[in-house]
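Researcher: Let's do a round of design. I'm pasting the structure tokens now; please hold your answer until I've finished.
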């Protein structure tokens, strides 16, 4: 991996991690140390951030890139990948790592475990049966997924995968697995508050466990829950380990919503509009794949204005008859008749009340004018008696366009006041509402609906991403409308009529 020349200068211990980076020779370390006057890794990181690494004579751009990557300083907005892609790549990597006999446990950590909507790199923690890691590091370097190694250490390997994502794999024995998991899951801010809380109680907390500061004795570290128990606080779900709230506030959050609690998917597109699958095919697939669903809502785009990939209003009757026919065959009303209608420039839905009234569920969405302030359009749509839910309320497309400007407090007030649900759209490039807006909406008492917005069968899994956003927004079952039965949905619709009348 690197050339250890005869007469190469010794690497001072505090700079040892530099020497473990690919293509960095002891001479390079010496050059960095002497030319930048650095004596610790902290100094090196400061020098990288200040752009001084580039001034070291003799360092090549590729070497600088490796150093930046090894210290996770290679991040830019566009080097982040959507959570969905990172999850798929991370899970594939976990499966590959679990094949090695010395790996007892493998789990995702970092922002991937916290389910942030975009991910910088894939962090993984392995529990190993043996203390000697050299053989395993050698095997990891030769996995099919590995393109090249960036850096290795006694308990760490950093690599670039063939899909160009960076993976940081940490190693721990059973005794320290929980402590390492807590440490590497982060976030940094959360870790720091936990550390100071531990210090107040006389403990030191780090990847090597919870240690009694007076006696130096190891107190806990096998499981994350052991550490929380010793600190006298409840376990905190990874999705909540950010810096938004105080420790005390985090303790009072009720159990978070889970995918298994969802009773239906309420935005689905079929081959009647812009989807690829038939209604019957979708019903067959979902009733087998997600048996806990009690209902699904078909919500094709119905429009007289858009030329392509929509259902003309004249065909709504035909689609309704098809749904009735399939429900009859299934023996119960599994498939509900819904629609996604455009919110026009003036905030009115495109479809007339007589059309909207035929549906079991009406989603109104903004599909035009993404740059203007859309507060008035969103409020007007909430006030419409035939609209049950606002689809992808903020209009953001991750990596493409930010949410449109809106006074979200006013929008959430309107949704709560009119009994209109807001969507958590689970498409990987939408995740809309995002975690922060979800948190604000539920605080105002707004009900949310987690939908796949599927166009094809593989999209139905996206709902798990929407559940992650809901969990990051501290939602419990009661905040999510589609954890309820269809009777609950009907009651929600009836309540809206009541609220508008009062
Ligand atoms: Zn839409």
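Researcher: That's everything. Go ahead.
Model: Designed sequence:
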């Amino acid at each position: 991996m690197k050339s250890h020349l005869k007469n190469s200068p010794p690497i001072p211990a505090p700079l040892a991690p530099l020497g473990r980076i690919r293509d960095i020779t002891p001479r390079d370390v010496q050059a960095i140390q002497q030319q930048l006057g650095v004596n610790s890794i902290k100094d090196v990181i400061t020098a990288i951030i200040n752009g001084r690494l580039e001034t070291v004579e003799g360092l090549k751009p590729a070497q600088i890139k490796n150093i930046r990557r090894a210290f996770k300083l290679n991040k830019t907005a566009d080097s982040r990948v959507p959570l969905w892609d990172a999850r798929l790549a991370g899970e594939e990597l976990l499966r590959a790592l679990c094949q090695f006999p010395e790996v007892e446990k493998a789990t995702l950590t970092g922002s991937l475990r916290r389910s942030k909507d975009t991910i910088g790199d894939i962090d993984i923690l392995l529990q190993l049966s043996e203390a000697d890691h050299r053989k395993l590091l050698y095997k990891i370097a030769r996995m099919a997924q590995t393109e090249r190694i960036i850096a290795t250490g006694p308990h760490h390997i950093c690599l670039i995968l063939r899909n160009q994502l960076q993976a940081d794999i940490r190693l721990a024995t059973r005794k320290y697995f929980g402590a390492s998991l807590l440490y590497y899951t982060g976030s940094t801010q959360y870790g720091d508050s936990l550390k100071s809380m531990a210090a107040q109680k006389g403990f030191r907390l780090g990847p090597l466990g919870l240690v009694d500061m007076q006696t130096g004795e190891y107190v806990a570290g096998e499981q994350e829950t052991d550490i929380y128990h010793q600190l006298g606080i409840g376990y905190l779900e990874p999705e909540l380990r950010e810096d938004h709230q105080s420790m005390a506030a985090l303790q009072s959050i009720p159990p978070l919503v889970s995918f298994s609690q969802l009773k239906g998917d309420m935005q689905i597109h079929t081959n009647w509009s812009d989807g690829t699958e038939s209604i019957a095919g979708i019903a067959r697939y979902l009733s087998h794949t997600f048996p806990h669903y009690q209902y699904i809502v078909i919500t094709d785009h119905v429009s007289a204005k858009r030329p392509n990939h929509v259902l003309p209003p004249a065909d709504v009757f035909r689609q309704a008859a098809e749904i009735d026919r399939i429900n009859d065959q299934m023996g119960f009303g599994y498939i509900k008749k819904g629609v996604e209608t455009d919110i026009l420039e003036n905030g009115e839905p495109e479809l007339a009340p007589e059309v909207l009234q035929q549906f079991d569920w009406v989603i109104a969405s903004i599909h035009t004018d993404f740059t203007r302030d859309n507060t008035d359009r969103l409020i007007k749509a909430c006030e419409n008696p035939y609209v049950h839910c606002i689809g992808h309320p903020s209009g953001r497309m991750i990596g493409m366009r930010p949410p449109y400007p809106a006074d979200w407090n006013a929008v959430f007030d309107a949704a709560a006041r009119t009994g209109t649900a807001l969507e958590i759209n689970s498409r990987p490039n939408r995740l809309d509402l995002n975690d922060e807006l979800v948190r604000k909406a539920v605080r105002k008492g707004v009900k949310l609906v987690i939908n796949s917005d599927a166009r094809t069968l593989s999209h139905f899994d996206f709902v798990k991403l929407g559940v992650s956003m809901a969990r990051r927004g501290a939602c419990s079952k009661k905040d999510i409308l589609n954890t309820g039965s269809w009777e609950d949905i009907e009651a929600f619709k009836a309540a809206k009529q009541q609220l508008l009348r009062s």
